[in-house]
Write a structure and sequence with these properties.
- The protein is mainly β.
- It has one domain: TolB, C-terminal domain (Neuraminidase), CATH 2.120.10.30.
- Helices cover 6% and strands 41% of the residues.
- The chain is built from two helices and 24 strands.
- The strands form six sheets. Strands 1-24-23-22 form a four-stranded antiparallel β-sheet, with no helix packed on it. The chain has a four-stranded antiparallel β-sheet with strand order 2-3-4-5, with no helix packed on it.
- It is globular, with a radius of gyration of 17 Å.
- InterPro entries: 6-blade_b-propeller_TolB-like (IPR011042), NHL_repeat (IPR001258), TRIM-NHL_E3_ligases (IPR050952).
- This is SMP-30/Gluconolactonase/LRE-like region domain-containing protein.
- Keywords: Repeat, Signal.
- It holds the Pfam family NHL.
């Protein structure tokens, strides 16, 4: 590996969001057009939220198989981490190894080793969970109740929580930055932001999307969105009103350059893009172009 490649990897590692080991590539990165399947429909049924930890282990919320599974980097063996869950839709893991799972009607906490389940909160239909950069609070979206709430990550069971966005419109997913600005993706095609203690319908960051699902945010305010209805993953630079397709976007299908209702996206520490390809029952990996790392 040459010096510039090593520098690029260091940059990627510095883009740690939410203290939860999420990595992000340079904002001008590009990816190969043809993806490879890392977990196929023979091993999972309906992948939704995904998470990649410090070791590049991929965790998948396999919603209609009621479980969380994992795939270690470089392996082809998928193993079950948690089973018998209630429609798990999303997850996040903190730096201590504690997993937080968004199940249909509850937010649950599983300490490292994933035993001793604690129900932190109840919801009507919980679709997404995020953790703040200080790892103090969890943020969840309740789709039917149209709000975003926050909870104390290491707090007691059955918390009431605090409503931080009371007027979200069918919120599907949530992200949070270092100054407690909340970003929520609406089923109806937009991503909005609410600064701390701000109410109302929020500021439109980007709209005219096709049912945006999983969203993530890097340290510079770049949004990455699993654009479900557009069958693509898009990138929105801070301050921009334009969504740029960075993966797929070639119509519905199961070809290597296609997706079918993507539900979430995440990056490993090399900058490779993983997509939860919900409609095809698989997880795809789009490798980062090496010219990105050599510039």
């Amino acid at each position: 590996m040459n010096t510039s490649s090593l520098l690029a990897l260091v940059i990627i590692h510095l883009f740690v969001q939410n203290g939860s080991c999420a990595y992000f590539p340079p904002i001008d990165a590009t990816w190969q057009k043809q993806a490879e399947t890392v977990v196929g429909s023979d091993k999972i049924g309906s992948p939704q939220g995904i998470f990649i930890d410090r070791d590049n282990t991929l965790y998948i919320a396999d919603v209609y198989n009621y479980r969380i599974v994992k795939l270690e980097y470089g392996s082809t063996n998928v193993s079950v981490v948690l089973d018998g869950l209630d429609y798990p839709t999303d997850l996040v893991i903190d730096k201590k190894g504690t997993m937080f799972v968004a199940e249909k009607e509850s937010l649950t906490r599983w300490p490292k080793g994933f035993h001793n389940r604690t129900i932190l909160a109840r919801a009507e239909w919980l679709l997404s969970v995020a953790i703040d950069p200080r790892q103090e609070h969890l943020y969840i979206t309740d789709y039917f109740s149209n709000y975003v709430k926050k909870y104390i990550a290491n707090g007691e069971a059955e918390q009431n929580g605090t409503v931080v966005v009371p007027n979200a419109i069918s919120p599907w997913s949530v992200a949070i930055n270092g100054i407690d600005t909340v970003f929520a993706a609406s089923y109806y095609g937009s991503v909005r932001e609410w600064k701390r203690n701000e109410s109302g319908e929020g500021k439109v960051v980007i709209d005219q999307l096709g049912e945006p699902r999983g969203i993530s945010l890097d340290c510079f305010g770049t949004l990455y969105i699993a654009n479900c209805g557009g069958n693509s993953v898009v990138r929105v630079l801070a301050g921009s009103k334009t969504a740029t397709v960075i993966a797929a976007g070639n119509g519905i299908g199961d070809a290597p350059d296609q997706l079918y209702n993507p539900a979430d996206a995440a990056f490993d520490s090399y900058g490779n893009l993983y997509v939860s390809d919900y409609g095809n029952g698989r997880v795809q990996r789009f490798r980062i172009n090496q010219k990105t790392l050599s510039q």
